[in-house]
């Protein structure tokens, strides 16, 4: 039912049970997934506002771009691999098999950890080049945006580590399937966010 | 994709075993609601006391020596921030949202009870951090609740050392708590409604809380973003918002930041925040009015559309708080237009409340007194908003007492009257006892008449041009002695209103033990929360089987029915029966009309 | 029933209050009648709605209150009625908004003939700059601000040389001429408000905001800061005097240009020393002060403060009724015939060796510390050294008994209330904010520890 049709419903005219066991208008999926999608929208708002702030701050007269560390390309690669591994784990889980699932799922997280380590090392490169967080507004935004992204990644890794423990301790696939699916969705989201941030940071 | 059946899925509940797990580390939404509500009201009392201290200073500037300029500005700041965020947002969403959503949706609990519990404890942490700022360093920040840079970080502002850091930290923690709670409310409303309960059968309380929660989820990020960036400016010396400035003769090590950027971010949160408070109030008051008028809410669909329209529009009006901020003046055209457009759905809501009373059978009991009082104060506050939204009229009135009077009328008095209406209305369900009707009515008269005596004259101080946020007016040629006298009168009214709130506390605590035992549905209400098998509802709410809903929430005085309401879970084929034990249509608890 | 009557009475009462109220917009002193017109339109439209809807509400409550045997009508919605109400509301909103937008268009479009002036706000003072004969203001930057160039005018900019600098918070404007105010701040947000002009705008550090108006009535009006700017917000006052063109020109001619302020010779301590002998009789040979003769310590005080006070004594801004000791200063100060002589004296006093005065006051140091750091330090600094930036003199190591006398004078209105004592008025408010002699002594005792 379209949302307009739903909202036009003269509900006082219709008595009796409407819909099946599920309430009409509910999404046909697990509540955890609905919650995650809402959270992703919230996170999108957060990153969008940071980016808008970035563009507005850029227009002010004292703006001077900084040279982004080349390492970021490598880090981006790590994150892509991480996302691909998560997708692989998800495909395995959907098919109900167990084969390689530990490799894929845990490998995905390990690459994410490597990504964060890579980001830290990029910070080190910037420091070595004389850029600290307060040196210049572009540098401030670089540390801020990469930092906020990394914090989101750490949050994901916390969930990932809990699921990994369950996976390693031999839980049934059906018990961890939802976790794997949601982790994968979250990782893809963070990959897209990173690609956008990277594009913004390196083109300005 | 795996199909997960929901409505028929029996949720696994964490059943408590000891007093501590039952009342402290509880995952029951009703206990969490009471925890949220209690904490919010407690911190609200702190803010109330701060406002009375300010009023004493303003009304008797040379008589009382309770606060100096520094603590005056700290009181201004903390009063505003506590009332808006830590009291109203927390009480409407954390308190009423938590209590009513699962009950009105026919669910056993929120979808994520553990997260819900966590939400409360994180909220409590944010309150404690905020309160800690009273005891650290120079005390809380005195930058005004809007926390405008650059003064937040500068020596001329109290609490620029630690107060501001704790404030920003507390807000960030609050936002985390709100997000945990908010995801719960939204997903519960969407996914956890019981069988037959379509969205358009939901009571307006749920609609108001649902849309307000969505606003909160999408607006609080703006506050989070500005808080994080300001923390960077404060602690790490960046220049996001800090331009080159001179602090007591010494240039600070900042350059090029934009204070106006902060204001845009702040109000991108701040304006939806107004509706985060207002929309739940709109919803709750609709249900109170409808129940006690024994009439369906008039124009239910229009009410839902108006809630959604107001919620959507609230994201594109923010800069009407910034007409005189020095932003590009052309923004004024756009924001004045959007702001006045929002008046149309808001006015429709008012018409529909009044039309709900039209040809009703109005039981004038205490909750209804507060609800009707709300209509009056909201009309007043809404209309004065048209002055401030219309950009040129804001030029003389901005930053005067007119603004103070306007937003206290519309965001202070009106939601608080709804809160009292709702607290009295649902008190029998929450506690299983009736409150003392007479005391509640005295409380109403004191609050309603007292606040009008405070804020009606205050508008006229604003017309005159008396500036707000002044510790003392000193000698100013255009402010006559009569205005100073008026300030004294306002203070006396404020003290009276403040003191009369004791009646509320006495009432709810006294009635807890001594109130008459409440019927499960003392008001004869059609909505689902009154149909629970136990009063107060036990953990799990619904006994062995979840309810099934057959009709909308407003079947009052339906022609041909035996009694003047039909509960939502009454099948259409079953003739409504009158259960004299539980409901007597001619028994009126408001017999003690004053 | 009672509720219906009360709502009815509140509506009537509100109307009576409105007509009986002596509080209404101040008499306009700028050509913004269009703003007042928009206000009136909105006032009467909203006033009508307020009365109509509330009377209807009272009627409903009265008519449809619960009565035995009465039953409510079942009416889920009435689409026609709702649409009708929406249309009427929309028309009302347009009626209010349309004139508002037209007037706003006028406000944002500064007429070509408007002459510019600059308003500078800083914690917690106003200052003003007028373009000189070239009609153009020189560029300025906060980073160029120094004691001798408080506007931060760019010395390289030829347009700035003839700019007229007004350091006191009182400004003048000619009647009947459109003016554009360029607004700048050196530190935090401020707001330039003159109630009688109807318009206001924030001063934002880092950018130049503006507003324009055409003064229409001769008189003197208060300038208030209306954006919270720190604990001195409520004492950030100024005044604007609307003059005839002739009076305005005469006033403007008396004010120094930027070039003149920069060329002004620094005071010569040696020249000042020659005339100090008279001072020494009461203030001590080294300006160390003499309690018995009511001569406060001078040594250590900044030259700008001494200079200002001497000029105040000369012109009677200080030393008025009730200030017996201050009155003695008037003939003394008048011995310094020229501005140059005053500057020389101030320069000499600043050069005197500064030995902290002997404490004479006892009080609760802890309480004094709390009061001082919360309310005084914002201007006089935590060290008690004072700074030209906030017009705050040095307190640390100065005569504590004199500090208390002055606070008492401020509180009693003996000092600080003269219309030309722009900076003293702030201290009247601060002295009043303290409870009295005991707190003064506590603060003095604390200041004695700052040395």
Question: What's the β-strand tally of chain A?
Answer: 0
Multimeric organization? heterotrimer
Regions with little confidence, pLDDT below 50 for 5+ residues of chain B: 1-9, 577-594
Task: Kindly provide the radius of gyration of chain B, computed on alpha-carbon positions and rounded to a whole number of angstroms.
Answer: 24 Å
Structural domain tally of chain B: 1
Percentage of helical residues of chain B?
A: 55-70%
The CATH topology of chain A turns out to be Four Helix Bundle (Hemerythrin (Met), subunit A)
| Number of helical regions of chain A | 6
DSSP strand content of chain A: under 5%
Number of helices of chain B: 15
Sheet having the most strands of chain A: none
Radius of gyration of chain A: 21 Å
The first-level CATH class name of chain A:
Mainly Alpha
**Which architecture of chain A does the CATH hierarchy give at level 2?**
Up-down Bundle
Layout of secondary structure:
The complex is a heterotrimer of chains A (204), B (594) and C (451).
Chain A: H1 3-7, H2 31-58, H3 71-95, H4 101-128, H5 137-168, H6 173-202
Chain B: H1 19-23, H2 29-59, H3 69-104, H4 113-132, H5 163-191, H6 204-236, E1 246-247, E2 250-251, H7 259-293, H8 300-313, H9 331-341, H10 343-357, H11 366-389, H12 391-397, H13 401-431, H14 437-464, H15 481-514
Antiparallel strand pairs in B: 1-2
Chain C: H1 2-20, H2 33-63, H3 79-108, E1 115-122, E2 125-130, H4 158-161, E3 164-166, E4 170-174, E5 179-185, E6 190-193, E7 200-203, E8 209-213, E9 219-225, E10 237-243, H5 245-254, H6 258-263, H7 269-283, H8 303-315, H9 324-334, H10 339-351, H11 365-380, H12 400-412, H13 424-433, H14 437-448
Parallel strand pairs in C: 1-5, 4-10
Antiparallel strand pairs in C: 1-2, 2-3, 5-8, 6-7, 6-9, 9-10
């Amino acid at each position: 039912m379209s949302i307009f049709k739903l909202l036009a419903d003269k509900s006082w005219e219709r008595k009796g049970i409407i819909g099946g066991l599920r309430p009409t208008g509910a999404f046909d999926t697990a509540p955890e997934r609905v919650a995650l999608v809402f959270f992703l929208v919230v996170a999108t708002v957060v990153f969008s506002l940071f980016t808008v702030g970035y563009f507005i701050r850029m227009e002010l007269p004292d703006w001077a771009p900084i040279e982004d560390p080349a390492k970021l390309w490598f880090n981006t690669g790590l994150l892509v691999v991480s996302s691909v591994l998560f997708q692989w784990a998800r495909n395995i889980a959907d098919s109900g098999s167990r084969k390689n699932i530990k490799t894929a799922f845990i490998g995905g997280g390990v690459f994410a950890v490597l990504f964060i380590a890579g980001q830290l090392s990029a910070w080190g490169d910037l420091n070595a080049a004389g850029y600290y967080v307060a040196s210049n507004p572009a540098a401030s935004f670089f540390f801020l945006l990469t930092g906020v992204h990394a914090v989101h990644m750490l949050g994901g890794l916390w969930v990932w580590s809990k699921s990994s423990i369950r996976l390693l301790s031999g839980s049934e696939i059906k018990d961890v399937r939802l976790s794997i699916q949601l982790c994968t969705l979250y990782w893809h989201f963070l990959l897209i966010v990173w690609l956008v941030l990277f594009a913004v940071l390196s083109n300005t | 994709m795996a199909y997960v059946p929901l409505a028929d899925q029996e949720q696994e509940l964490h059943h408590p075993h000891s007093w501590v797990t039952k009342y402290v580390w509880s995952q029951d939404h009703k206990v969490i609601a009471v925890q949220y509500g209690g904490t919010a009201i407690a911190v609200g009392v702190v803010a109330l006391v701060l406002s009375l201290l300010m009023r004493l200073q303003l009304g008797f500037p040379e008589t009382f020596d309770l606060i100096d300029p520094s603590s005056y500005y700290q009181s201004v700041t903390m009063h505003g921030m506590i009332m808006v965020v830590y009291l109203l947002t927390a009480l409407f969403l954390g308190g009423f949202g938590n209590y009513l959503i699962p009950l009105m949706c026919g669910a056993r609990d929120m979808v994520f009870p553990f997260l819900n519990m966590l939400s409360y404890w994180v909220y409590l942490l944010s309150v404690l951090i905020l309160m800690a700022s009273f005891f650290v360093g120079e005390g809380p920040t005195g930058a005004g609740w809007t926390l405008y840079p650059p003064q937040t970080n500068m020596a001329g502002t109290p609490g620029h050392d630690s107060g501001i850091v704790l404030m920003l930290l507390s807000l960030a923690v609050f936002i985390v708590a709100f997000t945990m709670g908010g995801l719960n409310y939204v997903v519960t409303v969407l996914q956890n409604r019981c069988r037959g309960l379509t969205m358009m059968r939901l009571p307006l309380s749920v609609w108001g809380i649902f849309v307000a929660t969505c606003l909160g989820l999408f607006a609080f990020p703006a506050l989070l973003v500005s808080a994080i960036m300001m923390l960077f400016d404060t602690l790490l010396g960046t220049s996001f918002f800090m331009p080159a400035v001179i602090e007591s003769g010494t240039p600070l090590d900042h350059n090029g930041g934009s204070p106006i950027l902060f204001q845009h971010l702040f109000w991108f949160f701040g304006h939806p925040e107004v509706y985060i408070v207002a929309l739940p109030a709109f919803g709750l008051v609709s249900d109170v009015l409808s129940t006690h008028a024994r009439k369906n809410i008039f124009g239910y669909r229009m009410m839902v559309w108006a809630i959604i329209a107001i919620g959507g529009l609230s994201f594109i009006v923010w800069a009407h708080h910034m007409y005189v901020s020095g932003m590009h003046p052309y923004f004024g055209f756009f924001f004045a237009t959007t702001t006045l457009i929002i008046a149309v759905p808001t006015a429709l809501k008012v018409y529909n409340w009044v039309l709900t009373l039209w040809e009703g059978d109005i039981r004038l009991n205490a909750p209804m007194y507060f609800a009707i009082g709300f209509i009056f104060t909201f009309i007043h506050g809404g209309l004065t908003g048209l002055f401030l939204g219309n950009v040129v009229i804001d030029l003389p009135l901005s930053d005067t007492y007119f603004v103070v009077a306007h937003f206290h009328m519309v965001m202070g008095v009106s939601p608080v009257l709804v809160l009292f209406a709702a607290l009295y209305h649902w008190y029998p369900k929450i506690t299983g006892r009736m409150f003392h009707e007479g005391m509640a009515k005295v409380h109403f008269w004191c609050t309603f008449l007292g606040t009008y005596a405070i804020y009606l004259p205050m508008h006229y101080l604003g017309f005159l041009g008396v500036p707000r946020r002044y510790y003392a007016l000193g000698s100013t040629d255009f402010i006559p002695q009569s205005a100073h006298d008026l300030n004294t009168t306002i203070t006396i009214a404020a003290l009276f209103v403040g003191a009369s709130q004791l009646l509320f506390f006495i009432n709810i605590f006294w009635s807890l033990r001594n109130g008459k035992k409440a019927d499960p549905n003392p008001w004869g209400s059609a909505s689902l929360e009154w149909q629970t098998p136990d009063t107060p509802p036990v953990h799990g709410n619904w006994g062995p089987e979840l309810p099934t809903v057959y009709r909308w929430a407003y079947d009052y005085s339906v022609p041909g029915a035996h009694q003047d309401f039909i509960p939502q879970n009454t099948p259409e084929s079953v003739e409504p029966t009158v259960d004299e034990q539980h409901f007597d249509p001619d028994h009126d608890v408001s017999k003690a009309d004053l | 029933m009672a509720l219906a009557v009360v709502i009815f009475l509140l509506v009537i009462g509100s109307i009576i209050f409105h007509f009986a109220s002596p509080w209404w917009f101040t008499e306009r002193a700028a050509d913004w009648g269009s703003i007042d017109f928009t206000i009136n339109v909105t006032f009467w439209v909203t006033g009508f709605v307020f009365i109509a809807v509330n009377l209807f509400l009272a009627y409903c409550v009265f008519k449809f209150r619960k009565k035995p045997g009465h039953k409510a009508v079942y009416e889920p919605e009435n689409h026609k009625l709702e649409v009708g109400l929406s249309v009427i509301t929309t028309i009302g909103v347009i009626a209010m908004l349309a004139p508002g937008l037209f007037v706003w268009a006028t406000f944002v479009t500064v007429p070509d003939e408007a002459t510019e002036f600059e308003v500078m706000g800083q914690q917690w003072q106003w200052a003003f700059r007028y373009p000189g004969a070239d009609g153009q203001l020189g560029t300025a930057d906060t980073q160029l601000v120094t004691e001798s160039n408080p506007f931060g005018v760019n010395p390289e900019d030829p347009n700035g040389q003839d700019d007229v600098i007004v350091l006191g918070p009182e400004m003048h404007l000619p009647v009947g001429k459109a003016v554009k105010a360029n607004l700048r701040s050196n530190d935090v947000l401020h707001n330039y408000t003159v109630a009688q002009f109807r318009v206001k705008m924030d001063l934002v550090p880092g950018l130049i905001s503006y507003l324009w108006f055409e003064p229409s009535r001769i008189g003197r009006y208060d300038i208030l800061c209306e954006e919270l700017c720190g604990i001195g917000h409520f004492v950030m006052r100024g005044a604007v005097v609307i003059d005839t063109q002739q009076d305005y020109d005469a006033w403007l001619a008396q004010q120094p240009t930027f070039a003149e302020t920069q060329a002004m010779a620094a005071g010569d301590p040696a020249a000042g020393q020659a005339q100090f002998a008279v001072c020494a009789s009461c203030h001590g040979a080294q300006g160390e002060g003499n309690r018995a003769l009511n001569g406060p310590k001078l040594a250590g005080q900044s030259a700008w403060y001494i200079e200002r006070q001497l000029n105040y004594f000369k012109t009677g801004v200080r030393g008025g009724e009730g200030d017996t000791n201050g009155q003695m200063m008037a003939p003394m100060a008048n011995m310094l015939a020229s501005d140059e002589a005053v500057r020389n004296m101030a320069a000499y006093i600043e050069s005197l060796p500064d030995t902290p005065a002997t404490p004479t006051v006892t009080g609760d140091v802890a309480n004094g510390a709390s009061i001082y750091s919360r309310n005084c330090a914002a201007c006089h600094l935590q060290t008690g050294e004072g700074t030209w930036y906030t017009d705050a003199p040095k307190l640390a190591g100065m005569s504590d008994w004199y500090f208390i006398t002055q606070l008492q004078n401020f509180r009693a209105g003996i000092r600080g209330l003269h219309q030309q004592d722009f900076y003293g008025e702030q201290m009247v408010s601060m002295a009043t904010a303290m409870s009295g002699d005991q707190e003064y002594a506590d603060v003095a005792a604390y200041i004695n520890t700052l040395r």
